């Protein structure tokens, strides 16, 4: 897949008169795993929505490959970026298989027949998240974790070089959290897919990410490798958290022990 870089330039985001992000500039490294971290209300999901063109900046610009994202063709953009929002909505009674098929919409015209490529993309996505045997079941019959995996299959079926995921491990037990993050890392390593996630678990973020963006109440606290970002000083600034940092015994990445 083609490497694509999303960039924020002097970005200000908010809702009405309430500013959430103010004058933020940063780039999301192409073909890497990036995680956005920070306390509740600091603007993590808002920033992700801006990168997905779901909200328009109050000031500044978001660019994809150097071009303003708001000036790009909608269908072309949907072939480049897939987003899994925090609380996605689906039609009542829809099956898992039909939900996942919706991920192929950017690649199909109004009267286009269902193709072998479409079928293979959906089957591969269902298999990747372990939902093949549930594809005939209604989404509203599933557990929260199963529903989350069905939604993840939809964005994987979309087949984009860039994934934006807002808390993709929500509702998942620890085993499935590790499976999903391992799957995303494998997708990143094998296909060069750029994966950008919002997570709350700092230790999982440090274990699986190449690049971290840490937001705090005052804006950007730090960005860079886990070793650069996950420090006692940065955690104090972002979360007002007293913690000890030691190497993860499995990966040697930084691991947070709250005090």
From TrEMBL:
Q: Which domain of life is it from?
A: Bacteria
Q: What keywords sit in the KW lines?
A: ATP-binding, Cell membrane, Ion transport, Iron, Iron transport, Membrane, Nucleotide-binding, Transport
Q: Any one cellular component term from GO for this entry? A: plasma membrane
**What membrane topology is annotated for this entry?**
Peripheral membrane protein
Q: Which locations, inside or outside the cell, does it occupy?
A: Cell membrane
Instruction: Quote the Pfam families the UniProt record gives.
Output: ABC_tran
GO molecular function term, any single one: ATP binding
* All copies of domain ABC transporter, residue ranges: 6-242
Single biological process term from Gene Ontology? iron ion transport
Protein family per UniProt: Belongs to the ABC transporter superfamily.
Query: What's the protein called, per UniProt?
Result: Iron complex transport system ATP-binding protein
